[in-house]
Amino acid sequence: MATDTATDVFEEHRPVLMGVAYRMLGRVADAEDVVQEAWLRWSGADRTEVREPRGYLVRITTRLAIDRLRHVQSRREAYIGPWLPEPYVTDFGDTVPDTAERAVLADSVSLAVLVVLESLSPLERAVFVLREAFGYPYADIATTLDRSESAVRQLAGRARKHVDERRPRYEVDPAERRLLTERFLAAAVEGDLAGLMSLLAPEVRLVGDSGGLAKAPLRVIESADKVSRFLFGAARKGIADVSFRLVEVNGGAALLALSGDKADSVFQLDVVDGRIQCIYIIRNPEKLLSLSPE
Fold first, then answer.
1. Euclidean distance between CA atoms 64 and 114, whole angstroms
2. Is the whole model's pTM more than 0.90, yes or no?
3. Cβ proximity of 218 and 291 under 8 Å
């Protein structure tokens, strides 16, 4: 197999490999490192014996991601404040024409689901990602993880039960979330406290991620009153030379706050029945590098 053909094959499957690695790790940089290592393994392999390149590459990527996840878990235990996944720009384009499949992929990369996946073991997380997000048969997952099919089914059952018990029990309509995101921005910019309160569910939660590198609450804030007071207090202090963009990250609409030409914050909302259920704010500058305009 010629080098340029090897490159073409790898690039064809790169989006899937990146999707697997990101769902496993929750960090774009970590996922890119894993995919790069997968490329090195692929370019140095005897590809004449590889009958199914996609399966081979997913297997390598998954195993590398499991090793990386085990390494970074101790680092996350020492993280300052709540930990949220790094915002991941999602644009499935024409690669996922089916609406139902698109919805599954968007849900599997949502902040809410990725936060739940953090509490799974690396093997459980791998099984969940491959089965639920990408629809891999149990037999193929067993080969990937070098486990028996019965063991993989047990891992899948435990992971699915754990996620179902902790994931939000509602589906977020993309159009509704986009509309609420626009109204949320308008109320915050205009200082419309009553308007903001009307958007918040009584039990709304605000989760901020700064990693100790920016200002953000170190604990989850709960209730419409406390969340609104925090938001207006933050708005009064302001961001220098601020502007906002509506972007799509992790399968849904989000607000990107820019300070000049530098990404300062990402706000994403979970919405149910026309009210904001949870507000995620990511301010760790290390997680926003890919969102700053070039």
1. 19
2. no
3. no
CA distances from 218 to 21, 24, 89, 118, 243 (A): 28, 25, 25, 18, 25
Residue-wise pLDDT for 206-216, tens only, equals 999 999 999 99
Residue 49 DSSP one-character state:
G
**CA 56 to chain CA mean position, Å:** 24
CATH class in words for 174-291:
alpha beta
Residue with tokens 């139902």: 100
- How, if at all, do strands 275-282 and 200-209 pair? parallel
Take residue 53 and report the two structure tokens written for it: 């390149």
pLDDT tens for 141-191 read: 999 999 999 999 999 999 999 998 887 666 667 888 899 999 999 998 888
Domain range annotation of the chain: 174-291
Encode pLDDT of 24-65 as tens digits. 999 999 999 999 999 999 988 887 788 899 999 999 999 999
Reading phi first (left if > 0) and then psi (alpha if -120 to 50, else beta), residue 243 is in beta
Q: DSSP assignment, residue 85?
A: P
8 Å CB contact between 135 and 292: no
